[in-house]
Amino acid sequence: MQLKQNYYLFLILVTLMSSVSIFATDTYLPALPDMALHFNCTQTEIQLSFTVFLLGLAGSQLIVGALSDRFGRKKIVISGFVLFTLSSILCANAHTLSQFIIFRLLQAIGGGVGSVTSRALVVDRYNRQESVKIFSTIFPIVGSSAAIAPFIGGYLTTFFGWRSNFFMIAIFGLIILFCVFLCLKNKVPSVSTKHPPTSKKQGYSDVLGNLEFLGYALIIAAGFCVFRSYSVETPFVFSRQGYAPEKMGQFYIALAVAYIVGNLFAKKLINKWTVEYVLRVGFSFFIVGGLCMVSSLLIFDNNPYGLIVPMAVITFGNGLLFPVASAAAMTSVRSEHYGIASGLLGAIQCVLAAFCSNWVGELCQGRAVSLSLFIGTLILVGFLSYLLLIVYKPKSDVSLTEDI
Fold first, then answer.
1. Dihedral, CA atoms, 332, 334, 336, 339, nearest 10 degrees?
2. Per-residue pLDDT tens digits for 113-148
3. Nearest residue to 176 (alpha-carbon basis) of 12, 62, 28
4. Distance CA 271, CA 386 (A)
5. Would you say the pTM of this structure is higher than 0.85?
6. Listed residue (385, 224, 378) closest to 293, CA to CA
């Protein structure tokens, strides 16, 4: 009974930690047009706050992964969420765009702790197949926050102004701090007995030199870039089409449902099929959704559902890909490098998403058709990564999965 209770407490904690960066990025999405007016800046300039956040998230995860391997997860998590909570309050009180962007960078550095340590905590305790099941349990809840956050943010913006979004995010940080003190022990991860210990520099080199890890990381990054490009640009697309912030928030609900169903389907498939088979199924939906988005918007340019429905299909594919590729990436490296691998996994997707969130504003300018072509290109890049690094990976690349 105690073991079962501990399992559920652990599940709640890593779910909250995994969700924090999504809440920090997605809650204020419906407020972006209002914030651009408040700070008297352009669409591209306010979207820079999104880009800076992702870059800060990436840098944070690179460092946090190695630190948590060295000093234990709990100390790092507490330090990170104290910074996250304080900087969220500062964001809410920013008076200029420059101040806001600086505070967003600090918020990202603190929030990066949640993403990297939550993945590492899972693979600290479970093997690859079990990790897929855990991720498939966590990710539906995390995915639902991608809809809940802008839904809440839309109403907060309408009734209390854009600053209220960041006060809500600060409260979320406090809740996580309370849960960490309650149920997380500061256990330093053990070093694998099958391999001699290596320096952190060597650890980064080993992980980055693992083509299997890079393949799975780029698959995840492609899906993340698609979602982030969509989420940062659609507020301006929907605003151009005449929709208010609270209505925009409702448009993201279908995506959360699709992602949750995809996660649950992945959990069901992994009990019967291999990781490779689930990846193929996920990419099938990924590609079909992209083709449908481009073709539908060439016909229905001014209809929001020309974006929403195909994106739901893409997101269902993401729901299949994310838990499977995450577990496969993390368990393709040595156990003493789980923190480094988790940090690199998050950093790769955040850096690429940061560039995409900047480019999408420059290239699309609130145009739905342009956004669909941008997303279609990202899907193609992800599929090529899958083919070249996973399906047809060089024979000289040796996976460490069998040693874990």
1. -20
2. 887 788 777 877 777 667 767 777 777 777 677 667
3. 12
4. 22
5. no
6. 378
